UniProtKB/TrEMBL annotation:
This is 23S rRNA (Uracil(1939)-C(5))-methyltransferase RlmD. CDD domains: AdoMet_MTases (cd02440). The gene is rlmD. Signal peptide: none annotated. Its EC number is 2.1.1.190.
Length: 460
C-alpha cells in the first residue's frame, strides 16, 4: 500500500473480518492493508461496518451488522456497560479477555521491543473477576430534586445514576447508596458545574478488603456543610464497619476531584488494610492499589523474580507508598525506595513503622536524580525494582542502571508499550529479559500489568 492510498471513502458500508484487538479494546480490520478501528467487535468476527472517519494511516468505523460472532463474545452482565465506559471488555468472556491481553503483551514486545522470542506467560487472572475494586468515587448531580451519583454519560457532563457497579466491592455500592440517600434527605444540594453553586461534588468510599474498615469522603465546594453534625451522625449510625468520615474541600471551578483542604469529620484519619502480612494505613488522599487481591499476586511475582536470600541491597524506584519496598524488605538486607510525591513518602515511612520494618530508607525525589546520587555515595544495589507510571522509565534512569550494573532487575509495568521500549534499551545496555508475567489487575478493562525479570548478561 502506498502511503497516500486510502482504499475507502467516508460513509462507505463495507464487509470486513476483524483480525485483532487494539490496546483500548477496538477491533482492527484491514482493507488493502489500511487499518480500520471499530468499537464493540472482536477478532475473528465478520461484519458490515460504516466508515466514519479517515486519517492518513488508519480510519474508524461503526458496526452496522454482525454476520459471524466470535466464540468469546458474550452478553455483558452489566446493564449500563455501553453507556458507562468504565469497562471496555464485558462483551468478551473472561477467558477471551485473558487471551487477548496475553497476545497484546506478546505483540507489543515483539513490535516495539524486538523481543519476539521472550518468554511471556499466560496472564494471571482472577478466579472471580467481579467486585474487586476497593475504592468507589462518583460525581454527584440532581434529578427532579433528588441526588444522583454514578458516572458521566460518554462525551457529556450529564450524570447517570448508578445503583451497582459489578467491578466494585459490593459493600462500597451499598455504602454509596446509603450516603447518597442520607445526603438527599438532609437537603444537601449537588454541586452544579455551570453555576458553580451547590455543595456536594463527589462521594468517595474506600474499604479495607481484609479489615472491612470503611471510609466515607465527602468532597464539597464549601467548607460548610448544612446540618453537618446530624448528617455525619446519621452516616455513622447507618454504615457498618465505618471508621472514618472525611471532608475534602474543593472550592475551584475544575474537573479535578480533590481540593487542598482535608478535614476529618468523625473517627480516624486512616483506615487500614493488609496485602499479605504487610499492614497499610490508607488516608483519603493516599494512593493505594484498587485491586488488593491481584496486587498480592503481582508483588509475589516481583518478589519471586527478585530471588532474595536476605543478604541483598535492593532499590525500589517509583516506590509510591512503599508497597513493594516493604514486601521486599522482609527478605532483603536493606531496601532503598524513591518516589516523587512527598505525601506518598510520608505514607511509606508510616507504613514501615506500622509494620516494625527498619531496614528501609525512603527519599523524596526523581528516581533519575536520586539513584545516581546513591550510586555516587556508594550504594551498591544487587537488585533494582522499577514500577514507573504509564510513560515508563526516564532515559537518564535507564542509563544509570546500565552504568550501575545491578545483577538483577525487576520491571513492574502498567503499560506494555513503554515496557517494550525500555526493555530494548536495557537489552542493548547488557541486560537479558528472562521472562514476562502479565497479571490482570483490572478485569473487564483494557489494562494489563506486567512483571519482567531481567539479568545482567554474563560478559563474554
Ligand atoms: N510502586 C508503587 C507505585 C507505583 S505507581 C505501588 O506499587 O504502589 C508509580 C509511582 O511513580 C507514582 O507513585 C508516581 O508518583 C511516581 N513517580 C512518577 N514519576 C517519578 C519520578 N520521576 N521519580 C520517582 N517517582 C516518580
Amino acid at each position: 500500500m502506498s502511503k497516500q492510498h486510502v482504499p475507502i471513502k467516508k460513509n462507505d458500508e463495507i464487509d470486513v473480518i476483524f483480525e485483532d484487538l487494539t490496546h483500548d479494546g477496538k477491533g482492527v480490520a484491514k482493507v488493502d492493508g489500511y487499518p480500520l478501528f471499530v468499537a464493540g467487535v472482536l477478532p475473528g468476527e465478520k461484519a458490515k461496518i460504516k466508515v466514519t472517519k479517515l486519517n492518513k494511516g488508519y480510519g474508524f468505523g461503526s458496526l452496522v451488522e454482525l454476520y459471524e460472532k466470535s466464540e468469546f463474545r458474550i452478553e455483558p452482565d452489566c446493564p449500563i456497560f455501553a453507556e458507562c465506559g468504565g469497562c471496555q471488555l464485558q462483551h468478551i468472556s473472561y477467558e477471551g479477555q485473558l487471551q487477548a491481553k496475553e497476545k497484546q503483551v506478546r505483540d507489543v514486545l515483539g513490535r516495539i521491543g524486538k523481543l519476539e522470542n521472550v518468554k511471556v506467560h499466560p496472564v494471571l487472572g482472577m478466579k472471580n473477576p467481579w467486585h474487586y475494586r476497593n475504592k468507589a468515587q462518583v460525581p454527584i448531580g440532581e434529578r427532579e430534586g433528588g441526588l444522583v451519583g454514578g458516572f458521566y454519560k460518554q462525551r457529556s457532563h450529564e450524570i447517570i445514576d448508578m445503583e451497582a457497579c459489578l467491578i466494585q466491592q459490593e459493600e462500597n455500592d451499598e455504602v454509596l447508596q446509603k450516603v447518597k440517600a442520607i445526603c438527599g434527605e438532609f437537603g444537601i444540594r449537588a454541586y452544579n458545574e455551570k453555576s458553580h453553586k451547590g455543595t456536594l461534588r463527589h462521594i468517595m468510599i474506600r474499604s479495607g478488603k481484609v479489615t472491612g474498615e470503611i471510609m466515607v469522603v465527602l468532597i464539597t465546594r464549601t467548607p460548610d456543610i448544612p446540618n453537618r453534625r446530624k448528617l455525619v451522625e446519621r452516616i455513622v449510625s447507618e454504615v457498618p464497619g465505618i471508621k472514618s468520615v472525611v471532608q475534602n474541600v474543593n472550592t475551584k471551578r475544575t474537573n479535578v476531584i480533590f481540593g487542598e483542604q482535608t478535614n476529618v469529620l468523625w473517627g480516624e484519619e486512616f483506615i487500614y488494610d493488609y496485602i499479605g502480612d504487610v499492614k497499610f494505613a490508607i488516608s483519603a488522599r493516599s494512593f493505594y492499589q484498587v485491586n488488593p487481591d491481584q496486587t498480592k499476586v503481582l508483588y509475589d511475582k516481583a518478589l519471586e523474580y527478585a530471588g532474595l536470600s536476605g543478604e541483598e541491597t535492593v532499590i525500589d524506584a517509583y516506590c509510591g507508598i512503599g508497597t513493594i519496598s516493604l514486601f521486599l524488605a522482609q527478605r532483603a538486607n536493606k531496601v532503598y525506595g524513591v518516589e516523587i510525591v512527598p505525601e506518598a513518602i510520608e505514607d511509606a515511612m508510616r507504613n514501615a513503622e506500622l509494620n516494625g520494618i527498619t531496614n528501609v530508607e525512603f527519599e523524596v525525589g526523581e528516581a533519575e536524580k536520586v539513584i545516581p546520587q546513591w550510586y555516587e555515595q556508594g550504594v551498591q544495589a544487587d537488585v533494582l525494582v522499577v514500577d514507573p507510571p504509564r510513560k515508563g522509565c526516564d532515559e537518564t534512569l535507564l542509563e544509570t542502571i546500565i552504568e550501575m550494573k545491578p545483577k538483577k532487575l525487576v520491571y513492574v509495568s502498567c503499560n506494555p508499550a513503554t515496557l517494550a521500549r525500555d526493555l530494548r534499551i536495557l537489552e542493548d545496555g547488557g541486560y537479558e529479559t528472562m521472562q514476562v508475567q502479565p497479571v490482570d489487575m483490572f478485569p473487564h478493562t483494557t489494562h494489563v500489568e506486567c512483571v519482567a525479570k531481567l539479568r545482567l548478561k554474563p560478559s563474554p
